[in-house]
Amino acid sequence: MTPAQDAAAAIAAAIDDMYAAFLAGDRARFDTHLHPDVTTWETHLPGPLRTRAELDAYRDARDAAGPRPALAVLAARDKRVDVWGEVGVARYVLVAEPHGAPAQRSRVTDVLRLTRGRWLIAHHHAELLREEDAA
């Protein structure tokens, strides 16, 4: 494998681990995949969260509101990862399937930076797909 292919494989594995951590309820492990200056833009969020502190404040308020639906599946599918030096871009479809409910799909782009030997997400953008677009 080339260095770029090795890096792409490491990024893909990190994304898989991040979602496995989410399913396990391990926020600390999930957060090890985020750059300290991460920006997070998602369809369901109250506007773009431009810092890690804003993301943490949102999650703390959300979690204080009570339990969320448990997911049977949270997986990145159809990944495409490109790497240019110390910058990588991952594009994939995120499948979120609650127990006993239909799956939702989001189109995701993550921009990652190689930071102290680890690929960290510096920008996460997710757009919920309409049912007709998800097929």
Q: What can be said about the biggest beta sheet?
A: 5 strands, mixed
From the 3D coordinates, which CATH architecture would you assign? Roll
H and E order: HHEHEEEEH
3D shape: globular
| Percentage of residues in strands | 35-45%
CATH topology: Nuclear Transport Factor 2, Chain: A
Task: Count up the helices.
Answer: 4
- Kindly provide the radius of gyration, computed on alpha-carbon positions and rounded to a whole number of angstroms: 15 Å
pLDDT averaged residue by residue: 91
Helical residue percent?
25-40%
CATH class: Alpha Beta
Give the uncertain stretches in residue-range form.
none
Question: What would a concise description of this structure say?
Answer:
The chain has 135 residues and is an alpha+beta fold. The chain has 4 helices and 5 strands; from the N terminus they run H-H-E-H-E-E-E-E-H.
What does this molecule look like?
Residues 11-126 form the SnoaL-like domain. Pfam families: SnoaL_3. InterPro entries: NTF2-like_dom_sf, SnoaL-like. This protein has 135 residues and is of the alpha+beta class. It has a single domain (3-134), classed as Nuclear Transport Factor 2, Chain: A (Roll), CATH 3.10.450. Helices cover 33% and strands 43% of the residues. It has 4 helices and 5 strands; from the N terminus they run ααβαββββα. The termini are far apart.
